[in-house]
Amino acid sequence: MSAAKLVKEIPLDKAVSGMVLAQPIEEKPGTYLMPAGTKLSEKSLHTLKNRGVLHVTVVLSPADDMRGQAEMQVDEQLKRVDVLFRNSRHSDANRVLMNCLRRYRTKGRHDSPD
Questions:
Q1: If exposure means fewest CB atoms within 10 Å of the residue's CB, which of 24, 54, 64, 102 is most exposed?
Q2: Of all residues in the chain, what percent carry a pLDDT higher than 90?
Q3: Are strands 20-21 and 25-28 parallel, antiparallel or unpaired?
């Protein structure tokens, strides 16, 4: 018995070389840019971007899925920080504290906001 594949739709800018398409990418109904099962390369990612593709559905490895879940947790934590400081951003001290908390929550993440 084979393990179920983990599939997720992600923004194209989050896709990386080596990921595998879970669904074909249609340019228009009946016309495919890339079939399901295509292993993405830097060249194919560049082509998709130039064609205006915004999202792709990829097969995730268990490690990719865990990373995605961790990123969602961090995103939720950042939203919570924003909510907590929504009424006090005018204060320089509070703005500094909020930015410190955001950096702490995104420690180790490459796309952390400043």
A1: 54
A2: 31
A3: unpaired
